[in-house]
Every structure is written in C-alpha cells, then in structure tokens.
Amino acid sequence: MRVSRYFLPTLKETPADAxxxxxxFMLRAGMVRQSASGIYTWLPLGLRVxxxxxDIVREEQNKAGALEVLMPTxxxxxxxxxxxxxxxxxxxxxxxxxxxxxxxxxxxxxxxLITDIFSNEVKSYKDLPKNLxxxxxxxxxxxxxxxxxxxxxxxxxxxxxxxDVSAEAGxxxxxxxxxxxxxxxxxxxxxxxxxxxxxxxxGGDLSHEFLVIAExxxxxxxxxxxxxxxxxxxxxxxxxxRQSIVxxxxxxxxxxxxxxxxxxxxxxxxxxxxxxxxxxxxxxxxGDKYSAPMGASxxxxxxxxxxxxxxxxxxxxxxxxxxxxxxxxDENGIIWPESVAPFKIGLINLGGKNDDCVAFCDDLYAxxxxxxxxxLYDDTKNGAGAKFSQMDLIGLPWQIAVGxxxxxxxxxxxxxxxxxxxxxxxxxxxxxxxx
Length: 435
Ligand code: ATP
Ligand code: MG
Ligand code: MG
Ligand code: MG
Hints:
Keywords: Aminoacyl-tRNA synthetase, ATP-binding, Cytoplasm, Ligase, Nucleotide-binding, Protein biosynthesis. By secondary structure, the protein is of the alpha+beta class. The protein has two domains: 3-334, Bira Bifunctional Protein, Domain 2 (BirA Bifunctional Protein, domain 2, 2-Layer Sandwich); 345-434, Anticodon-binding domain (Rossmann fold), CATH 3.40.50. The protein has helices at residues 21-28, 44-63, 77-83, 85-88, 111-121, 167-187, 239-251, 291-294, 317-327, 355-370, 384-394, 404-409, 427-434, and strands at residues 32-36, 39-42, 67-68, 74-76, 94-97, 103-106, 130-139, 154-164, 192-196, 206-213, 219-224, 254-256, 272-287, 297-299, 305-307, 309-316, 329-330, 333-334, 345-349, 375-378, 398-402, 412-416, 422-425. α10 links the parallel β19 (345-349) and β20 (375-378). The longest helix is centred in the middle third of the chain and has 21 residues, at 167-187. One magnesium ion binds next to β13.
C-alpha cells in the first residue's frame, strides 16, 4: 500500500478527550473515529488490525471444534421474555420497536437466540456435543462509555455457546474453550491470566475471566507470581489433557477484586502480585439456566428427555485492539506484535525528489509485495522527520529507510520498532530477511 493512496489521517496532537495510551494512539494513528458516544468507525489501518485479531480468534475457535455461524444483531424481545432476562437486563439493553410495534432489541449477548436455534434443530444426544460461535457486533448502553474502543457501546465480540448431554461433557467443552483462550491471547503477544470470576447477569457457578495486566485496566487483580512461568501455547488431544492444563492454570491463586478476599487468600505476601487488569475474555458454564426455561432438551441415551448443559464464551475482539496497545507502546506510539500488525514493514523513501531514490524504492516495494510481505510504502513528499515519526506512531514492527546517501553505498537502513535497533544492509539482504 502506498501512503499517497491510503486513507491515514494521523494527528500530531493528543486529542483532548483521550486519556489513556490506547485511545490516544488509536485516534492519532488514524485507526478509528468516534461517530457517537461509544460508537466508532473503523478506518483502514484500524480495520486491518481488527481483522487480524478476528482471524486469530477464529482459527483457535475452529481448532477447538467450534463451528462458525452468524446471528443477526437485532433480536426479538420474545425470546428474552421466555428466559426471564428481558426485565432483568435493565437499561444496558437497547430496546427498539418496529413500524408494527413489535418489540426488538440490539443484542448485548446471544444466549437466548442460540438456545432457540439449537432447540429447534437438535433433538438427540447423538448430535452432541456442539459448540456454535459467531463474531458479531453487540450493543450495550454503557452508563459511562470511555477509553475509546475499550468500553464502547457498540463493540465486536466473539461469543461461543456449547451444548452437552451431561455436566461432565459440558465441563470438557468449558476446558476446550479455556485452553483455546490461553493460545488465542498468547498469539497476540498478550499475557492474559484466567481468574475466578463473578458470573453476573449471565449466571452459573463456574466462570473465569481472562485479564491482561495493564495499569489502565478497570479491574483490580491479585495473582500468584508463579503465573509468569506457565506456557500458554498449550496443545491438547484429550479430555484428560485439557483437564490437567486447566487444573495447572487454576491451581494458582488469581482473582479480581469482586472475588478476592484477603482473609481467605493463602498466598504469601511475597508471592502475591497486585495490579490492574483489562477483561478481554470471559467464559461461563451455567448448566441448564437457559435450556430449562427455554425448553432446550434432547433425548438422552436412556430415551428420556434431558435439558442440555450449556456454557458461553466471550472474547472482546474490538477491546483487544486497545488492550494490545496498552501493553505494547512507548512515548512515540504503538509497537504492534507481528501477528496483529496492520503491515509488517514501513518502507520510507527519504529522497522524495531524487529520481534514483524513487525508482529504487518503487522497485524494492514491488519486490517486497511480490514476496507476499505486507508493506506500507511512504512515497509522499513529506520531510524525513515527519515520515519517521508517523511510522513510529503507527507502530509497524519494521521500518526500511532508503536515502540517497545509503543508496550510493548500496545499503538501506532496517529498524526494529520494538528495540529501536538499526542495521544497515543491502536491499537483497533485507528482502531475504523478510521473505
Ligand atoms: P465489563 O466487565 O468490562 O463490563 P462484561 O463482564 O460486562 O465486561 P461480558 O458479558 O463478560 O462483559 O462480555 C464478554 C467480553 O466482551 C468481555 O470480556 C469484554 O472483553 C467484552 N466487552 C464487554 N463489554 C464491552 C464494552 N462495553 N466494550 C468493549 N468490549 C466489551
Ligand atoms: Mg459490562
Ligand atoms: Mg466484567
Ligand atoms: Mg464479563
């Protein structure tokens, strides 16, 4: 992509309404713009990151055996009246009526709808287990939308729903999501810690929140320092393996302030870390809380009808964009982990008016593109300083700077955005390095 053809409205100044790094940098890097309180337009650069995060979430869900569907954003109020949550949900739910006065709502979550879909189609235990998920926009009329996409009103969530014939089988579905979440967040360069959590309006008694440690997190968290040593890139092939990994990760103390109790916490002070965290995922096992009132039952092995055992599993896809920036930035801007970076390389032409330099950059750009590498090529006539600071701001993992002086010596300068390290090499070596 050439910067001259891109839509990249970067800002030099910190916008007045932004307080935390991720919000400031997402606005300054031209990733999003607010269109109404807590409601955002994703501009090209931001959308590329959102899609990369979505892809990682999708790959890990599919790998864990979940099946992708796409439910609508608008739901009928009838289903929520059946489950009893229509009144309970309160003002966070955006209620709408259509021209025929039918009561609708913009979905804040999908337990009711998926339970309805499931119960209309699945009648026998032989069709279980099933786990269905989608990645869809949600709306919650938050009292205080803030921190940009971190607490929006409209936000992108991955939500999965598992259906099993027994509580034991349901537990394995829960464990499969638990282990998938460990991998999902690790692949985005995040250390997300599973913590025992309150189940809130979703209900049930088994639940973990996944939190990324960051000073700007909204939850206070307490955890054993031993978490640092666990490897989240787990591979599992059986229910026993999954249970054993979940046991390992849950044997160590970790709790949010809602659950933490200094009286009962048995971790030595020297081992207990206190900090703040951003909730990026939340998983629940709630048995028949929805299947019973909504009549979602299947025929069991003995021919009797049983209510299915359900769990639900959310990932805050759009919140993760902010969460990743919170844990990876410096004073100059964002530092994207390669797995979610909008482009891998920023190619900077420092000799804007020098024909040789332009020709050389055009050629290098074409070769990088041909090698399948995602490159953002600053081919504009802006000054060198402005180009470097814009590249630092948008945080691509690598920068290749080409100037007339280097060209004379046959070298380009390759900079690692994270370490700041700069190395001169031939264009050929640069191509090999990134191919
Ligand atoms: P929070 O405690 O932050 O309000 P929640 O517990 O209400 O979140 P869940 O119902 O558990 O949220 O939804 C699943 C995931 O969706 C959360 O873990 C979070 O990552 C994301 N999420 C929830 N609310 C928002 C929001 N207003 N903006 C962006 N992401 C959100
Ligand atoms: Mg909430
Ligand atoms: Mg919460
Ligand atoms: Mg939650």
